[in-house]
Design a protein that fits this description.
two-stranded antiparallel sheet
């Protein structure tokens, strides 16, 4: 059987599992998120598909890995943290404007003055979530 393929439950044919990019597009399109995050994430994916397909592959892989590593809790911080984890400061200013929680989760952006959310100014459970997402992203570097 091909790597990444699965048997269809309705027929004995082989069905190709979605790659990371298709999977990320699908997941992002299904979730209810705050404000413009879904659209901004889609614009980010489209941007990377043009300017840096290799980085697009990597951030989609990270988003999928992070979600799969965290069961039983809200997957959105992990997903969007992974998806935007390799954004430059300029890209973050463009695609993450107003998404302070996601900015706070990304180590390379958290202390760059882009977002207004400070870990020491939020509830302890929120601060802990940010720290955990940051630690997971740092482990991927």
């Amino acid at each position: 059987m091909l790597a990444g393929a699965v048997l269809s439950p309705k027929s004995p044919t082989v069905v190709k599992a979605p790659d990371d990019i298709d999977w990320v597009r699908h997941v992002n399109g299904r979730w209810i998120v705050r404000e413009s995050l879904r659209g901004d994430a889609l614009a980010w994916i489209d941007h990377l598909s043009i300017v840096d397909p290799a980085r697009l592959h990597e951030v989609c892989r990270r988003a999928r890995l992070l979600i799969n590593s965290q069961s039983g809790e809200d997957p959105k911080p992990w997903f969007y943290g992974g998806l935007f984890s390799l954004a430059t400061r300029e890209e973050a200013a463009r695609f993450l404007k107003g998404h302070d929680f996601t900015i706070a989760c990304i180590p390379r952006l958290a202390d760059d003055g882009l977002g207004a959310l400070k870990v020491d100014e939020v509830r302890p459970d929120t601060a802990e979530k940010i720290r955990r997402v940051r630690a997971a992203l740092e482990a991927m570097e």
